[in-house]
Structure formats: C-alpha cells, structure tokens
Input
Amino acid sequence: MELINRELSWLAFNERVLQEAMDTKVPVVERMRFLGIYSNNLDEFFRVRVANIRRIIGVQKKQIAGFSGTPTELYNEIRKTVMKQQLKFESTYQQLLSELEKHSIFHVDDTNCSGTMLAELSNYFNTKLKHAIVPIILEKSTPFPRLKDSSIYLAVRMLSENKKTVKFALIKIPSEFPRFYRIKEGEKEYVLLLDDIIRLHLKNIFSIFTFDTVEAYTFKFTRDAELNLDDDLAFTLIEKIEKSLKQRKKGKPVRFVYDEKMPKDLLDHLLKSLNLKFGINTIPGGKYHNFKDFMSFPSFEHPEFLYPAQPPVNHPDLEGQKSLIKTILAKDVLLHFPYQRFDYVVDVLREAAIDPKVTFIKINVYRVAAHSQIMNALMSAVLNGKNVTVVLELQARFDEENNVFWANNLRENGAKVIYGVQDLKVHSKLMQITRVSNRQEQLITYVGTGNFNEKTALIYSDISLLTANIAISREVKKVFRLLENNLDRGIFKELIVSPFNTRRKFNALIDQEIAFAKKDLPASIRIKINNLTDPKLIDKLYEASQAGVKIQMIIRGICGLVPGVKGMSENIKVISLVDRYLEHARFFIFRNNGNPIYYISSADWMERNLDKRIEVACPIVDPKIQFEIDTVFNYQWKGSVKVREIRKDLKNTYRRPKAKPFHAQVELYNYYKNKANQD
Output
C-alpha cells in the first residue's frame, strides 16, 4: 500500500501557511501574521513529532510509513525541508519590511536609531524595562541555568579591545512586555523589536564591567513536549498532570535556532552547555526568533493592512428569539463559525442557568479560552442551583495548565468535574441540557466539530448541531454516562463513537458505496477533515476507488493517501484549502444510492482519533441542514482561490481557475450574510 509520510505531509501543510505569507494578494500585516502562525506551528511540530522521531532513533531501524529510509534519514530529510522553508521565510520577511516602507513605516534596529528615538527608548528602558531584565553571567564555576522552552534569549558576548578577555552572559527577553515598540516622527512611523531595545542598553546592563565591545545574538530552543504520567496510585490525575508539566519544562532540547552571525566561540559554549551537537539539533536563522509573536504584529491603524472586516452574522433561526432553548426544541439548528456568531452557544448556556425548568447541564471540554465565557456561564448555572457536570480533558496538549486552572475553579464553585476516561483522551465536543416541562424530560443537545472557545471560533471554521432529536439526544446522554462511569459503555445506533464503533461504521458505509459501484449504480463519498493518516481506512478508500466509487476529499493538513494513481486511487481527488480562516470542520457525505447519509464529527481519520480517544460523529437528518452541508462542500470544492491540489510530490500546486476565480471563504461569508438578510 502506497502512503505519504506523515511528517513530510505535515511540513507540506505548513508550507501552505508560508505560501499565505508569500502571497502578495494577502494584506501586508496579515502576511506578517502568517509568518507568526508558520513559526508557531513549526515550534509545536518539533516539540511533538520531531521529538518522537528523536526518541525512536537508535531503537527502531526498520523503515517507517511512507518513507523509504530509517528514522535518522527521515530526521535529516525534515531538517533539510525546514532549512529550505527557512530561506523562503527570511526572504518573505524582508519583502514585507520593504512593503511597509512604501507606506512610510520603517523597521529600525539598534544600529540605526535617530537621536530622538534613542532618547525615547532610553526613557522607556529606564522607567519600565530595566528592572524586568535578569542578566545571567555564564561562569565555569556555576551551573548553566535551566532555560525556558518557547522563550527568546539574547546570548551576550563581552570582549576587550585586545581580544584576550571574553565573557559570556544570557538575557531572557521579558515576555510580559510587547514585542513591538512604535515611534512616530512626523509623517513617518518606526517599529523596533524589544530585542533591539535591550541591545541598545547592553553596556548599561553590564556597566560594572569594562569591556570595549558588548554584542548580543538571539537564540531559542525547543524541548520534547511529551508528558510522562507515572502510575503512582498515591497521586490523582490532576496531581500527575501538574507534576508532568514541571517535568516537561526539563525535557530534552530537540531544536536550537540561532542567529547565523553568532560568533563561533559563543555558539560552541551554548551548544556544549545544552548538550547539543552542531548540525543535528541546530538551525541557523536570522537576527530575530520566536516569530510566533508576529501573530500580534501591529496594523498601524491602516485598515488596508488587514483583511476586509467580516463580522460574524446573525443566525436567522436564533436571532431575536426570547428563548433559544424553545427554538431548538422546535427545530434543529446548524451553526457555522466564524461566519455565524458563537455567542449563541454562550447564550444557550446562560438561558439554561436561569431557566427554572432546567435541572442538569453536562458538557465535555477540550480547549477553552483563558477568560472563558463558557466557563463563566457554567459557574452561573452552579450558583443558580443547577447540577453541572464538566468532563474536562486535562491532557489537551499545551492547554494542560489552562485546563487545570478551570478544573480547580469549577470544582471550588460547586460543579462536578470529571477528568476524562482512563487511557483515553476525551476529544468529543458535546453539551446537553436536561429540562423538565409538564413532567416530561426534554434534552437539548449540542454536537460540534470544534472547541467551546469563543476566541478560536473567530478564526477556526467549525460547525455544530443544536438539536432536541430524541434518538440523538438519548445517545449523547449515553456518552455522558460512559464518561461518568467508565464501565457503562452503551450501544450506539445513531452516533458513531470512538473507540467503540467508528472503524466498523465507517468501513460499513464505504463498503456500501463499493457495493453500489459494483452494481453499476452511482457511488460517491465526500469527506472534509483535517488529517488522514490511518492506514486501514486509507486502504479501504483505495479499495473503493478501484471499485469505481468517486471520492472527493478536502483535507487541510496531513494526507497520507496518494491520490490519482492509476489502478489504485484514480477515482480519488484531494484538495487543501488554507486561507484567512483555519478550516477545522469535519463532515462526511455518503451518496447511498440517492438517499445521502450525512455525519458531522469531532474526529479526523487518524489512529489516535479512531482507537485512543472518545470522539463522536453525529448524523444530520434535517433536509435543510443537509442542504447547507452540501453547500459548504460544494463552495469549497468549486474554489479556485487558496486551493491546492494534494499530490505525491507535495509541491502544493495551486488549483488554477478555468473561468472566473471562485474564492470559497469569501463566497461562503456572502452566502450566510444573504441568508441572514432574507430570512
């Protein structure tokens, strides 16, 4: 079976993000922010995937999926690919600085500030910044300090005029200060990085020394982010998570990115102190690192530097209703973020919190905002006497600390908090409100593809169903029973629930299309997911293609399937859409001989989602909502702007418009806007 390697496919996805930064049609500050997204993505990739490869080097000598060489050779291929992308990254950054200069906005550094600027920066340094800086002198007699992952450091080199005396030091760039500092002089505006303000004052910081030259070079490094939870029964899960988070901060470095102009003696000293080897863990770069901060690059009050405003629109079924719950009891409602407002989800919870007929609220949470309106609404419900159960996944990678915070907060306020299921991450996106009216139980149910996070709902494209459908709601109730009592599995006929019946159900649905194709009946499958890596499902899709089933897939990220190969996958086409919004919705449409079957899902088709997580796919039975899902897929499949064709060569070839260009995300926004105005 032919596969594309997971890691190399992911790097191709991240290059699609980099392409957005390179695209001159994208507004200039948005391009700068895409550089930040690219950088942040790459940091996480090294912390997780590359760290995993480093762990298996020396242990596993055999070939790995989709790659003809050893883990060591794959690691070298990853490094080579990243280095090529880094050159594009640096070139793009310089182009963007030139573009800003056309608008009288100039980037300056510690070498070319005017006298007026220096006076302002000196005042800023002395009154605000100075006391946040903690210089560390690197002496042979003292241990090398434990550095923080994801932070930026200045490696300082102090040199006497005769070059016989040299001293090294470190400065962590304070994260509590904005990375960018703006200065206006007449019609011109200037921007500096915090790094350079510190560089300007190095002699001030190290004033007790008499060195002639004091220079600083940026570097950062990335640690292995794996959490190792021990089996000590004396500790609760939350205590194990807190302990493991501390251990993560001591994880082995897997990448060291540094200013390529750093002197060799300073570089050698850092690598030796960090127990790293040149050329294996090291990646040379430019003067500045931690470009994830560029996700917050200022817009300089220039509207044309940003995407045109697309505020989320009203949902015609929910807007202006006195009771959202009664509306949902009467009809199913589909929400599509960020085109439509996420506020409705918070409003449903807020209404439930004060509705005297509501008795229970249950929700499972994977990631929430730091200042979460969802969590505040749940605490309001507790204070109003509702029984609130929150299944909170403590092991949501890089959100563990935020989830521990909310777990403690909720528990202290009286909510029942459950920390997931043993050995399984809870990745489903479910909420259920129990209401008793005229002695009859009413279940108001939410099933989504994305997190209960009002912040990411502005940039992540997700869909969610609000329903009182009895069959669906009763099975969601079973899922919550499972989450509360690990022994109570339940039987699911409506829902597809990992790790219990997902493989069997999806295999059966694909087999059904194969059977239709073999009878010369029209057969097709349309899939929209983020990642496809599961070998067994890929093999099943190959089988379907060979039987004549037409398969269209929109996959944002990793795609292990090789499309368009004669005799294997010639009936499979795959595209990827990377644009203003992060495509995150997951849904499936099976033609079913003219009576299509629709599911929305929290799960990608990866081994972990199928076998090692609680995931829920929910059927869509309302014809109007089915039509809406068809519309979303049709618009994106028709797209000829920001759409790349996925091929084995991983070249991210843009789909070229045959006629008038069709910009799917823009057209979808207009679709929802018109829908809101018409209804």
